[in-house]
Task: structure prediction
Amino acid sequence: QVFQTASEKVETECLAALHALSACLSRSVLSSDTEDLLDSFLSSILQDCRHHLCEPDMKLVWPSAKLLQAAASASLRAYHRVTSSVLPLLLEQYTKHPQSSQRRTIMEMLLGFLELQQKWGRVEEDASTLLSLQAQVCSVVFSALTDSSVQLQLVGIRALTVLGSLQGFLSPSDLELVVDHLIRVTLHEEDSQSSEAAMEAAGTLAPIYPKVFSGRMVPRLEEELQSGVSSSERDEESSRDCSSLRQRCLQALAAVSTHTSIVRETVPVLLQHLRKVQKGREAGSARDVVFVCQSLHRVALQCQQDVESCWFYHQAVVPCLLAMAVQAAVQESARPLLDKVLLEEEVLAAMVPVISAATTHLSPELAAQSVSHVVPLFLDGEVSFLPQNNFPCSFQPFQDGECLEAQRRLVALLMAFICSLPRNVVIPQQERLLRELLALTCSCNCPFTATTAAKCFAGLVNKHPAGQQLDEILQLAVNTLEPSLAEGPRRMQALTLLLWVTKALVLRYHPLSSRLTDKLLGLLGDTELGPAAADGFALLMAESPDVLHKGCHADVRIMFRQRFFTDNVPKLVQGFHGAGPDVKANYLKGLSHVLNHLPKPVLVTELPTLLSLLLEALSCSDRVVQLSTLSCLQPLLLEAPQIMSLHVETLVTKFLSLTSSPTMAVRIAALRCVHALTSLPTAVLLPYKARVIRALAKPLDDKKRLVRKEAVAARGEW
Amino acid sequence: MVGAGGGAPLENANPLVYRRSGERPVTAREEDDEVADTIDDREIFDLIRSINDPEHPLTLEELNVVEQVRVKVNDAESTVAVEFTPTIPHCSMATLIGLSIKVKLIRSLPERFKLDVHITPGTHASEHAVNKQLADKERVAAALENSHLLEVVNQCLSARS
Result:
C-alpha cells in the first residue's frame, strides 16, 4: 500500500499500523532459546526496503524510508536494529550520488532518522550506531553546508540543529567547526534563505552551548560589523555589499541572543554600533539606525521570559537610548538644523518598540525603580541617572519655545516606556504629567509630536484608577479640545486627541466614552473633518501596535467591539439617512470600518438589518459612497455567503453595472465584488453564470490595465 | 522532492527549475484614470506564467515552458502569438499544455483578438501535429466539450493555494 501511494490517508494509516506492530513486538520478552520476534519482524522489513535505497534512479526511496522510520520510531531497540543497517548505507549513498538534488533527498532521509534519535535523548555509547558513525555523519552534514545548492544547505542546517541537540554527540572540536560553518553561511552565503536558516540554527543551539557561541561567534560578528563601518565606501556596489554584510551581522547578533550570558555580550556590541551610526549624516544613516533598533527589539523579545535577562536588558538599553536621544535633542536645541538622525520620525518610531518590549515584562518592583528615574527626566530635566550626562543645555520637553521642538519629539520615547508599564505600578507625579501632555498635544505645531503626546495621554488615562482624579483630568481634556475642535487652525490635532481619548475610554467601558463618541458621530457631517472622523472609526476598532493593547497591559474589556457596534451603529444608520449627499460617504465609511473589525459570528447575525442600507448605498451616484460600499460588501461576501445569497439578483445587477463606472477605482472594486460572488453556493450562482461571463467580456478590453487584471481574475473564477 | 513511487513514472522526474519573476510594479501612468494602457507582451505573459504544469507542482514559468521573449502581442491589430517550449522533446503533455494556454487566453482576452499558440520550432518531435490541433478552432471547441479534459485544463488554470 505504501509503495503504491494511492492515497495519503491510506499511507498514514499503514505507517501507523507498522509503528504499532513494531512497538508491540518491542515489548516481547527475550529468552536465550526462542526466536527474537522483533528482530525477525524488522529483518523482513529491511529485506523489502533496504535495496530500494540503493537504486540509482531513486524511485522508491521515499516510501522505503518512511516504512523504515515508522518501524524504527517504535522503540529504542527497534531504532538501533534499523539504524545499524540503514545509516551506513545512506552515508555510502550520499558519497555515491554527486548531484545536489539527489544528495538533498538522501540528506532528508538521514534527517528523518536523526530526528528519531532526539526522542531517546542522550546517545548511549555502547548500543549506538550513530555514535560509531559520528565522523562520517559530521563530514556528510558539513559537506552539505558547503554545497552550492541552497536546498541542500537548508537540509544540512536542519540536520546540524538536530545533531547539536543530541547530548554527547558533537565533540568540542566539532562544535567549533559547526560555529564556523554557521558564521560562514550567515555572513557570506549569497542566498538570504540560507543565511537566515543559519542564524536561526545558531539561535537554537546557543542555549545548549553558550560558551562556544559567545566565545567564538559573537567576537567574529563584532569584528565584521566594525570593519564594515570604518572602511570608506568608494563605489555604490561595494557600499551596498558592506551594508548588507552589516545588516546580516546585526540580524545574527540578535538571532544568537537566546541565552543570558550571550545577551550580556551582544547588547553592548549593538549599543556600541548604534552610537557609531547615529553620528552619521549621509542618506542611509537613518536606515542603519533603524536596522540596529530592529535587532535590539528582537533581543528584547527574547529576554522577556527570563527575569535576569529582562532586567539586565532594561538597565543596559533604556538609559542608553534615552541618553543618546536627549543628547541629540539638546544639541539640536542649542544649534538648530544639525539634522540629527536620531530625531527623525522613522528612527524614533523604530526605538519605540525596543523600549516598549524592554518594559512590558518587568516585575512591578523593578518597574517602579525605573519609572522613578524616567518621569523626573521628562518633567524636571533630571539627567543624573543617564550615562554620559553632560549636556550643553537643560532638557525641558514640556516647556514652550520654538527651539525646544526637537526635545518635544522625545515624548515618543516617554510614551514607549510609560504606556508599557504593568498595571499596578504607581507613576510618580502622574497628574502633573497628564496635564503637561494635554497642554503639549494641543499647543505644539508638529503633527508627530502632537499625535504621540495624545497617544501617551490616552495610554495613561486608560489605566488610571477610576475616581475623582480621573474625572477631573478627563473634564480638563474635553474643555481643552472642544474649542479647538469647533474652529481654528488646530482642528485636526483636536480630532486626533479626541480619537485617542475616546479609544482609551471605549476600551475600558468608561461612561464618558458615549458622550465622546457622539461628538465624533456629529463630526461625520463636518465638511472639513468628516473624512478624517470616518477613518477615526478604524482607529477606534483596530489593534494599535504601540499603545492601548493587551501586550502593554492596557485595560481592554472583553467584547468592546460588539458593545461599540450595538451602541453606535443605529446612530450611524440614522445619520446616514439624514445626511446631505456630500457627506453620506463619511457615515458609510465609518460603518464599514466598524463592520470590518467585528468578529464574524456577530457580523453574520447583524448583517440582515444592515444589508438593505448597503444595497441602497450602491445605487447612490456619489462615487465615494459607491467605493466605500463596495469595499464593505466584498469581505461580507466572503464571510457571510448564506445571507448574501438572499440578495444575489440585486448584487449581480448592481455590481455588473458598476463595472462601467467612469471612475477606475469603482470599476476595480466592482470587479473584485463580482469575483467575491463566487464564494456563494454553486446552486445560487448557476443561473447567473452565463450572464456574468458574457458581461465580463467588456471589462477585459478596459482601457486600464489594472481594471483588466481584475476582470481576468473574476471571469476566470466564474 | 522526488515524485511518488509506484504508479506511472514521471517522464521528467528532476526538471530544472527557473526563478519566478516578481509582480509587475504599478506605475503612476497605470493609476491615471485618463490615460489608456495598451496591452503589451508582459501583460500576456502574466496571464500564462502561473498556469500549472500537469505533472509537477510547478508553473510553466518555473519550468521555462513559457518565456516573455516568446510572447508577441499587437493591441492595435488584435493579434497574439505565444510560443511554448516543452521540457523534453517527447513530452506527451505538449498538447495539454498548449490547450491550457489557449483556453486561458480565450477566457482572458477580448473577443477581437486572434490567438496563435504553437510550439517553439525545433523543440518537439510532433510539433507539426500539435500546432495543427491547437490552430483548429473546431477541434479545440470539441476538446472542451469533453468534461474530463475540461476538468484537467481547469486544474492547470486554477491558482495554486
